Amino acid sequence: QGDSWCAYWATMLGDIVYEGRFPLGRTGSCDVLLQRGKDRGWLTKVPAVGDLYLLLRSPVDAHHTGIVVGLNGNTFEEISGNTNEDGSSNGIGVFRKERPITDSTIFIHYDRVAS
Predict the structure, then answer these.
(1) E runs forming strands in the chain
(2) pLDDT, tens digit (0-9, with 9 covering 90-100), for 8-47
(3) Pick from 61, 50, 64: which is nearest to 111 by CA?
(4) Environment class of residue 115 by beta-carbon count within 10 Å: exposed (0-12), middle (13-18) or buried (19+)?
(5) CB-based contacts of 70: which residues, under 8 Å, 6+ apart?
(6) pTM of the prediction?
(7) Contact (CB, 8 A) for 84 and 74
């Protein structure tokens, strides 16, 4: 209780899909995901379905993540854990939402081929 779990949720799903070999690995930290995306050259401002997204407080501080499931011009549809219906990044469950693409949103377009 009290721990953020959006990154745990997103990377667990990745591990399920990639049978334990998710290219970004398992982590509970959005900052670790941000750094792994930077290290691999996978960060982009242009989303694609299947990408992870990160909400940034600064270029080195990410505070929420989830999975891009749809694109609608200047917004994207996402599913994320540790959220709620009011839009907060900390919450009670897993929800599907539409979010704007802003300067504080970055996407991780990871290698889709399992290693």
Answers:
(1) 43-44, 52-58, 61-72, 75-83, 93-100, 105-108
(2) 999 999 999 999 999 999 999 999 999 999 999 999 999 9
(3) 50
(4) exposed
(5) 49, 76, 77
(6) 0.91
(7) no
